[in-house]
Amino acid sequence: MVRAAHLPSADITALRENRHADHLHTAAHAASVAATHSAEHTSLIATKLATRLPQAVVALIIAAIVWAFGANSSNPHLAGRGKTGILVAAASGVVCGAAVALINFGWDLGQQI
Fold first, then answer.
1. Buried (b) or exposed (e) across 85-103, using 16+ Cβ within 10 A?
2. Residue 46's pLDDT is what?
3. Longest dimension (CA), the chain
4. Could you write out the DSSP letters of every residue in 36-83?
5. For residues 49 and 92, what is the distance between their CA atoms, to the nearest angstrom?
6. CA 19, CA 83: separation in Å to the nearest integer?
7. Distance in angstroms (rounded) separating the CA atoms of residues 88 and 91
8. Is the dihedral of CA 92, 53, 55, 63 positive or negative?
9. Among 1, 30, 81, 100, which lies 20 to 30 A Cα-Cα from 15?
10. Among 20-24, 29-33, 56-60, 88-92, where is mean pLDDT lowest?
11. 56 near 95, Cβ under 8 Å?
């Protein structure tokens, strides 16, 4: 690294301009990388969403069947497990549906740091 005290004033000005140009280039590069990562995140989430959302629906159906068997056989423990399963499956479906928004929120929050 060159010390500014040993350079003529014209060279110091040129150094400052280069730093400013490098900063602008870095900012433009970071913006293009962020756009690329956002597109990659969206496609990755869409791929996972295609498998996770149907799994949540299947879990919801299974939990409803468990709840029905528990209620029909007067088994409160089994009925309670079925109710819990329905709540968990519904929550996982909501999280899967909101995954794109949640990931983008986290990504934007990380870019501010």
1. bbeebeebbeebeebeeee
2. 75
3. 92
4. HHHHHHHHHHHHHHHHHHHHHHHHHHHHHHHHHHHHHTT-HHHHHHHH
5. 11
6. 62
7. 5
8. positive
9. 30
10. 20-24
11. no
Distance separating alpha carbons of residues 83 and 67, to the nearest angstrom: 6
Distance between CA atoms of residues 105 and 99, nearest Å: 10
pTM: 0.58
Structural Rg of the chain based on CA atoms: 27
Query: Which structure tokens are listed for 79?
Result: 């009925």
Instruction: Give the pair of three-digit tokens for residue 35.
Output: 């756009």
Taking the C-alpha atoms of residue 32 and residue 107, their distance in angstroms, rounded to an integer, is 14
